[in-house]
Fold this protein.
Amino acid sequence: MQWLSLFIEEMCCPTEVALIQAELSRRPGIGKMECDVFSQRLNVQHDPGVLTPNGVVRFLSEIGMTAHPWRDVRDMTDFQSRRQRLRTILTWLSGLSFIAGIIFHAIQFIPVSGLLYWITSGTTVYTRVLYGVSVLLGFVFVIPPGFRALSRGRADMNLLMIVAVIGALVLGEWFEASMVTFLFSVSVWLEQWSMKQVQTAMRGHLQQSPLIARCRRSGHGQSVELPIEQVDVGSLVEVWAGELIPLDGHVVRGESHVNEASITGESMPVTKRMGDLVFAGTTNIDSTLQLETSSRVNDSSITRTMAMVADAQRQKAGIQTTVEKFAEIYTPLVMLASLLLMVIPAVVFSLPFDEYFHLALVVLVISCPCALVISTPVATTIALTRGIKEGVLIRGGRFLEAIAGVQAFCFDKTGTLTYGRPVVESVWVSGVHTLDEVFEIALSLEFKSHHPLAEAIRNYAEKQGFIADCNAKTETLHGRGIRGQLNGRNVWIGSVNWAMGELRDTTGLSEQLETDDLNGSVVVVGLNDQLAGIIRLSDELRGESLKMVHSLNALGVKRTEILSGDNAFHVESVQEQLGMTAAHGELLPRQKVEIVKQLKQQMSVAMVGDGINDAPSLARADVGIAMGAMGLDVVLKSADISLMNNDLLKLPWLVRFAREVKGTVRFNIILAIGAKLIVLAAALSGYAYLWLAVLADTGATMLVVLNALRLLGSRHD
């Protein structure tokens, strides 16, 4: 099976989605299908041996759907704009014809019989012509999908409107038929305009890579432009200032600032020099960069991100599934009610047929579930898009729904709450030595070492202005330390256990270990058999860790716990600094999983981690959140949410935002159902107006979309 991605011109409503899925599912060679009504995108699995891509397109055309390859979607923008302009022109011409009919009718009757008679009088032939023109102009875009739905035995809003208007004309209600047509045209135009805003906003936030790459071929001074699909790993690609980077790669020439907001959500540009990794879809700002590609287009960072976004749209929130099931029951029941209203009062009770036929038409229009069905996915899709903008990749609506109700957060320590790199915390010097002497020894011995503790000591010493003796003779004792000769003296640096065997008198070291509250690692510096000093190092806390914990507590999160494989004493120290609920150290991956399982029995749990050892607990939690997972596919696949910029403050932002999305969805559902119930109650009370039913449906759809659009600009600082 192969995936085919298509742009469908007519897919603007959940009813079209239902039609496509129903018809394609009957076709041999068709597998899974994914429909996104907001981008008008159809992803469909097909067996090339049974059904070719052209065959899929031809079959879609048979059911009235115009399909284009998704890679041509940019070329479709102009077409869509022209189509929208034509719809706009026809809508307002329909309105002008409707207004002309009113004016012509008024000119005929008001001077003769007064305003009251004009209102109650019947229409003339000329007035009917103007009203009829209004109906035809307003229904140019309604008739094709309406009859397409009729041919397939499905009732969408277009078909319902055709039936309602024809019914009004049969009853002689030319004015109402024309007014309903005009209002419906305006409502649909506004609805499509608001949907266009969603699409525009999504394209703006989900910036994609260019289709062409400027490649340099060996032996040629000039570059050649190639489709990115033809660019192999190891190719030399040139990116000018202001251009999007087409593929992942390493900089081999040049220096520039790169805006990585499309990947990490971080608005501040990042300096890129020779050897640095750059990502597809990011923007080169200052000057030309030449890079060597490290991945093909199908495996680039932006492609993987977009694939996860596409997958996220399939992960429906629980409330969305519930709404869709409700709509499946609601629509046929209301349509049945309209049929009964049309027949029973006239046949059984001999009541006026015209009156109840008109009432049935109103109820029929109310039966369309578009506003209700779209109420949840439009908010969810916009929320996922906003998450990308903030550097938070959410794998689906159900995880967004889940994070809103999380009561406990569990954290890995190293690389999550801390930076995962040691820093010098303090230095103790014995009475017979000086600080300069301690760091001269430490720097000279650690000068060539690549150990993280050695790098931390060098960084600290260089900032303090200490200078190393690069000519010192050294010997590395793996697992213990380094010894050497410095100015004719025997010097050494290493672990506490090794130092105990090197010192003639261990009293000073023992006293320091007993009296000091050690948080981290200890490195001992010695001269001959004497203690020169003690360097204490710790894993540096992320600057935002404390604020993040306080913010989560303020949001009502009941528990914040550390689950770490590090030394229990160090883990408890971090817990105390951050004011967290509990800490568990020296854990194996399976032990982390057990703690998460036990906690899940009491409340909803989110797990935050950054390493492969965290993957099992991320998968076990109600919501798994990965830190900086761009390069860790195992973690990325295990996580439900990924913080692409490693910003822990995005966690409280995420909780607040998820709760806002949940509130928006609930409001949208109430709005969609409430509008229909109000009109239904009004119709049954004797105020049966077709125009009111039209406004209730298309107006509610438009308001649902516009309300969801607010999520793109909401602030949670």
Observations:
- The first strand starts at residue 2 and ends at 8.
